[in-house]
Amino acid sequence: MFDVLILNGKIVDGTGSPWFYGDIGIRGEEIATIGKLSHESADQVIDARGAIVSPGFIDMHTHSDLVILDQPFIKAKIMQGITTDLLGQDGIAAAPLPSKYVEIWKRNLAGLDGTPPIDWDWSDVGSYLQKIQGKRPSYNLAFVVPHGNIRMTVLGIDNRPATDTEIAKMQEILIQSLEQGAAGLSTGLIYPPCCFAEMKELEALCQVIAQYGAPLVIHQRSEGDEIVESMQELIAIMSRTGAHLHLSHLKNCGKDNWYKTEQVLNLIDEAREHGVEITFDQYPYTAGSTMLSAILPPWAQDGGSDKMLERLRDPHMRNRMILEMASGLKGWDSMSKWAGWSGIYVTSVESEINRSAVGKSIAEIGKMRDTEDFPNVALDLIAEERNGVGMIDFVMNEESVKKIMAHPAGTIGSDGLLGGEPHPRAYGTFPRVLGKYVREEHVLPLEDMIRRMTSQPARIIGLQDRGIVREGLKADLVIFNKDTINDTATYASPRQYPTGIDYVLVNGSIIVEYDRRYDLPAGRVLRRRYAKRT
């Protein structure tokens, strides 16, 4: 007798092997038996005839860190077959968080993670993960510890190099965070305070994660103008430390840089041939999304959001920002230069007064304000919303997206911001990959793409009990129609659920059944367990 019995499915097991017909019997949270089970009985029977049965999708880059504490059932994620989110991205996330920095950090995260009505009452990675589990989420959450939080804990948010003593303290906090269950370390070298760190600081932290076998998950300092130099720096650090490099949302931005895609992929191949493990995640769109203040040069954000807002009120400093945004700086990517003011759209704001700006480009907002001084329109929005503004920026091309997606070291990450009128990737990433890039564009076979969504990310972040359809592993499963699965979310109407997903199971519980959703506390916080170090 099984709790759930899935019959007649085409099983794509997550290993990259060809699909096979089979039945799956589930007891409790685990896959108990795979075989011919039509003679068996169960409390719930699913006829998956004609459908694909695969492991649940693992989203390798998410920004659900605060929303999950307010909405334990995040429909945007679950309805696209995601059964595990990886939190803690870009070096700026929820924990660790000393109490004296809570108010500052709320403003720093507002453009990325919003300002949901939650109690900020955790301090370290352990207490944060415990708080998530206490909310009884409907799907699974893993966490990489953010570099910016570690740095802030030791030396605040000022723009200065860390001393050797401070670096040693950061290493101690990183070790503590890994021991509390973090699956790796993240950093975002365009975001304060991560962007204030010298490379020796990053290398010292990589020495720690190399000992644990955990990855560095990184938004590198350049994704366009200096992307080759940026990757060469990182590969050199990984060669010296032996750490695993995982590149966040790998892309090549700016029309003048699109030709570099082949060189970027060759760098990855060459490094892997020389023993450096490099993997990456990617979202299947030609536009990115982050906080609007990412258009500002790093010095403008020294000391946090309040200091940045003070500088925006200084005419001399504001003019300097505008000049540097137009020209770019050595070691810093100017998103506004790449996208242009017609290619940057506001996705979310905090106040009612600017609600009409949501969904419009900076150029369109300028026209609403009867001005073509678009740089000042953008800076005014950041100031008026106290840094609580999200954006979409169109900076990539389709050919590069497909070339990167075809590379075997890749995984998939939505990078979805959930507030306001979000990027459609928050609702459609995984179905879009399977519909557009597998079925229609033939970028990769179905079995290989499922591997990149399941067992490959599970291996990278150390999830040994899921990511493959195998007896004894957790029953995180998706049942979908390969002929109809697709995204429906668009830039104009992003809050649209995908088609073609019939069932989603998390730890053996059915939480999606066609258009019906069951708000069950089926999820778990997945703490990584490490072998004892010698």
Describe this structure in words.
The model has no long low-confidence stretch (mean pLDDT 96). Among the domains are: 57-74 and 86-132 and 140-286 and 396-417 and 443-467, Metal-dependent hydrolases (TIM Barrel); 292-393, no CATH class. The strands form four sheets. Strands 1, 2, 3, 4, 5, 18, 19, 20 and 21 form a nine-stranded mixed sheet that branches. A six-stranded parallel sheet has the order 9-10-11-12-13-17. The protein is 34% helix and 19% strand. With 534 residues, the chain is an alpha/beta fold. α5 crosses α6 (164-179) and α13 crosses α14 (374-384). α9 links the parallel β12 and β13. The protein has 18 helices and 21 strands. 55% of the residues are buried.
Short account of what is shown:
The protein has 534 residues and is an alpha/beta fold.
The CATH topology assignment of the domain at 57-74 and 86-132 and 140-286 and 396-417 and 443-467 is TIM Barrel
CATH architectural group of the domain at 57-74 and 86-132 and 140-286 and 396-417 and 443-467: Alpha-Beta Barrel
User: What's the multimeric state?
Assistant: single chain
Strand content: 15-25%
The number of distinct helices, counting runs of at least 4 residues, comes to 18
Structure summary, number of beta strands: 21
Please tell me the overall pLDDT: 96
Radius of gyration: 22 Å
Question: Helical content, roughly?
Answer: 25-40%
CATH-level-4 superfamily name of the domain at 57-74 and 86-132 and 140-286 and 396-417 and 443-467: Metal-dependent hydrolases
Main sheet characteristics: 9 strands, mixed
Q: Tell me the span between the first and last alpha carbons.
A: 45 Å
Shape: globular
Derived from helix and strand composition plus strand pairing, the structural class reads alpha/beta
Which consecutive residue ranges, at least 5 long each, have pLDDT under 50?
none
CATH class of the domain at 57-74 and 86-132 and 140-286 and 396-417 and 443-467: Alpha Beta
